[in-house]
Amino acid sequence: MKGKLIFQIFASFILIVFFLSFVLALVGVLYGGGLAKVVTGTPLFVDAWGVKKKVTNNGALGILVPAGTSLEWSEFRTNYPSSVVISDYVCYFSSDCSSGYYCYSDNLHCYNLPTCAEANTYTGYNVQESNEDLWNDCPTTGCYTGYCSGTSYSCAVYTDGLRHACPTGFICDDTGTCFEDSCFIPETNVLMSDGTYKKIVDIKKGEKVQGETQVNEVLGMYIHDFSERDLYSINGGDYFVTEEHPFKTITGWKSINPKRLYQEDEYLFKLLDPKVLRVGDVLITENGYVVVKTIESKYVEVEMKVYNLILEGDHTYYADGYLVHNIK
Fold it and tell me: How far does Cα 8 stand from its chain's mean position?
């Protein structure tokens, strides 16, 4: 009798699991337009707004992967179950990638084709006179005073008079809106290539800073006014950084607020795929590894200047000892 009861309970459990799997599969069919997809045991490949991702579920039950909008994907990517593994899709030829993507030979990952402005951000060439480093044709005017057009992300870095759009310290997004770039306070110490330190406010164009894998030359500086937002402190240090700035950890790039990074620089968000920086994460510093014990914020009311470097090379530097990305 007892054995029969156990068998009935087990059989009921199997039926429940089967029913839930069926419901999940049905939802996957109903939302087949990209709103949600089902991952059971077979890897799912998602075009995650610029980078093709491989989603693998190692759990016993199927799960839903919201992929209808970039915000849905962002929320899933920062809060997915421990049984799920998200990795970059490996390609060998551009034909392995979806339409509008190319295979980057350095890491064999699929990325979306950059726009004219993205592909020519750091060369300094007048895009009306040269096609060097350009992937696509540039528009005739691209940007005009006070605004940026369409997909011209980085108009503010141009100095040729033709593609200036946003005020100094702002960047242009794909909606034609100027957003504040993430930055550091002027007293932030930066590790130079010779092992000395300079406050970020004192660094000049042409100087060289130490990056993660190489020495990087400073091409310029973003400077803008900052107020009525929070600055953040890590492990009791200075309140020195804005919430969206990416920090390198032993498990990849993270920021205090990745959603803000997405709003301000969608291209970099796609490239770094940052997760939320939390207490317990291990940051990479110039002297090794540091565990995040505290993250604190302070609201800034009085207007102040904040700074970020424009770099060539691997686009990284050490700010107050932490390895960070220079955003652009």
Answer: 50
Segment 234-258 shows an average pLDDT of 92
The single-letter DSSP state of residue 259 is H
- Three-class SS state of 196: coil
- Report, as an integer, the average pLDDT of 281-308: 91
Alpha-carbon span 316 to 328, nearest angstrom: 10
pLDDT digits (tens, 9 = 90+) for 156-198: 333 333 333 344 444 444 444 444 456 889 999 999 999 999 9
Closest CA to 281 of 251, 308, 257: 251
Q: What is the pLDDT of residue 169?
A: 41
Pairing, β 252-255 against β 275-276: parallel
CATH of 184-325, one of 3.30.300.160, 3.30.470.20, 2.60.40.180, 2.170.16.10: 2.170.16.10
Residues paired with residue 38 on neighbouring β-strands, in sequence order: 64
